[in-house]
Design brief:
Blueprint lengths: L7 E3 L2 E3 L7 H33 E2 L4 E2 H19 L5 H21 L3 H32 L7 H23 L3
Length: 176
């Protein structure tokens, strides 16, 4: 005998009707959760974007501290570069000032772009050291009659080294 219950009868017996799963409530809850997520996450992400944008300066994404240190280093590099052909008493203090400014910029580097700029400035330091060594060799070759023939090769090397140094300065200036 088949009892009458909530459900439908089939040849196999009584199959209860689908119990409401509170689908309407879940759908509403899901929409509410999405709305709350959007209301909270959107302002947070915009705030994070503004904070990140305010931490960088320049078109290449340098941090504020590195940007200021790079400006000082570029000014010191230009002063040292202007007198790289002068004597030791004139060049050495300016070069040491530029080297210290590059080290200060390296201490403030915090991201990839900062490190890249500092690497270019370190390249200038190494290039300038090489330039001074080649300049000393050129001057000694020019003053020694036995080495007069090698002075021309030192002059070519001197020009290549100066071009490399100038290229490093130009690449650093492109970040400002």
């Amino acid at each position: 005998m088949i009892e009458e219950t909530v459900g439908r009868t089939t040849p196999r017996g009584i199959v209860p009707l689908a119990v409401p799963r509170r689908g309407l409530e879940q759908g509403t809850k899901g929409r509410l959760m999405r709305r709350d997520f959007m209301l909270h996450s959107l302002p947070v992400s915009l705030l994070a974007l503004l904070i990140c944008a305010s931490c960088t300066r320049g078109p290449k994404g340098l941090s504020r501290a590195t940007y200021a240190a790079t400006e000082k280093a570029v000014a010191a590099i230009q002063r040292a570069n202007e007198c790289r052909d002068d004597g030791l008493l004139i060049f050495e203090p300016r070069f040491l000032e530029a080297e210290k400014a590059v080290d200060d910029a390296r201490a403030t580097a915090t991201n990839f772009h900062d490190t890249l700029v500092v690497d270019h400035m370190r390249g200038w330091v190494e290039s300038t050291k090489l330039y001074r060594r080649v300049l000393d060799s050129y001057e000694s070759a020019a003053s020694d009659p036995a080495l007069k023939k090698s002075a021309a090769s030192f002059a070519g090397l001197l020009q290549k080294t100066a071009a490399s140094s100038d290229k490093c300065i130009a690449s650093v200036r492109s970040y400002l």
